[in-house]
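Subgroup meeting minutes
Present: P.N., E.W., G.H.
Scribe: E.W.

1. P.N. recapped why we're keeping a running log of single-chain structure predictions: easier to compare across weeks, and new members can see raw inputs and outputs side by side.
2. G.H. added today's entry (175 aa).
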Amino acid sequence: MAGSIQERKLHRQFELLDLDGNGFIEQKDVAEFVERITEAAGAEGTPQGEAMRQGAERLWQQLQQALDTDGDQRISRDEFVSSADLHAVMTEAIKLGAAAFDVTDTDGDGRISLQEWIRMDQKIGVLRGDSEQGFNRLDLDGDGYVSRAEYVQGVEEFYRSDDPSAPGNWAFGRF
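Output recorded in log:
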């Protein structure tokens, strides 16, 4: 079973993904979550936006295949948190998270500014203060930007690390 830090992070992500607040993640929730990110970046209809949409579909398929044992087309909070132990689900989540870099980097300079970060986070429901704190934790070299390497490391830490001091714990704000 995943450690308590990882469980807390996944509970937080469940809150962000359960967009209609019905206590379940459904395919429409995952699709809308990604739509909000691409919309915040103005990336609808772009190759990067399409990569995000396809990644969301792959993630949903992994979640459904691994966790939807009763076939009701939805994932409960407990089922979602148990996904921390499923390599295939976490791998798809990391791929989708990494693909979000290209969408969030709206000016295409190969790094994410605080403004770009906050714009994305606000669209997915992260409070501004939490967003700023997450950005600052992921900006490992303190240059005022989150590089691709810092971002990917943060996403991987969010989904795989049980280290309470890992900067990636803050990838989706306070957990």
